[in-house]
Amino acid sequence: MNNTGARVREVDVVVVGAGQAGLSGAYHLRRTGFEPERDFVVLDHAPRPGGAWQFRWPSLTYGKVHGMHSLPGMELTDADPDRPSSEVVAEYFDAYEHAFDLRVRRPVDVRAVREGDAGRLRVETSDGTWSTRALINATGTWDRPFWPRYPGQETFRGRQLHTAQYAGPRDFAGQRVVVVGGGASGTQHLLEIAPYAAATTWVTRRPPVFREGPFSEDVGREAVALVEERVRQGLPPKSVVSVTGLPLNDAIRQGLADGVLDRLPMFDRITEDGVEWDDGRRVDADVILWATGFRAAVEHLAPLRLREPGGGIRIEGTRVAADPRIHLVGYGPSASTIGANRAGRAAVRDIRRLLSDAPKGAPVPTPVTPVAAPVTPVAVEAAPVTPVAVEAGG
Predict the structure, then answer these.
(1) Per-residue pLDDT at 365 exceeds 60
(2) What is the DSSP letter of 51?
(3) Among the four residues 19, 78, 131, 198, which has the most C-beta atoms within 10 Å?
């Protein structure tokens, strides 16, 4: 019972999020002897299975998705490449949850994670409170779209939207569209919108880097290592695609040849009717589409004060350095399908070791909580990364 008289339910592990990373963690818990609802619980705020994929725009078909790795223990086969990826992945995740009896609770909003009693964590949710010995946080990034701020932004008389609100190219028919962002989603939006729009303009903070040749395992490992080093230092994670660059596929080549991907440097201000540069250039616009990425959705962990002075949460593998009871999966270097699978397995391995060192009923050692320095937001452009897979082109 808590001080309000409401019952506090106890489990060994709470998994927050049921995208690729969360389901991978739940699978490995189940596989190693943890029982759902008795030993662990999976909480997901989405209305149905599918992780962030259920919110993707219909024109992002499964055939446009690359690097989609199946969840552990169950392959995704015979998917129709012409179907929306939101449907394909949602159905696959739903089948997966039932096949392994993961009993995901949804929709449940996790509002805060705090220090509890006897070395346990207190997880406060829209469905009551849980007391847990360990936490797998797999909340991804989709719920935290990043909106840069520019002078005059509030005066713009047209429409502004983010990738998270993008519903498809037909919404831009006959309009003048400025797309901001040099990542995978920015190039995808431009290529889709151009045939419908009256005009498109592409602006990025840095010149885009297109990668020739295949994405080899060595290149992938090097990119992940760079992202991993950032989170090891307590810096906010960058996406893997921001390190590797964009693959120069046929669609990108055609976009370059047609002038659709003719990039301009970032504008200096927004006006009522468009955007302007200090050198006198201006572009009239009806729409500004911010394809400026996402940030890790970890606000519910704020009461634990896990952030480092560099602005990020320092992790070692998947374990939070400041609190070994907490694992971040689908965060930083594991923010891809294969990375999320491996992270889920690694997190469960560490949690089993932690819990075996502190037998059930005994308090888990409480870490010393560092004092985090305030973080100043910086308008950094990044390609969006999801807890499942990077979209085609990124």
Answers:
(1) no
(2) G
(3) 19
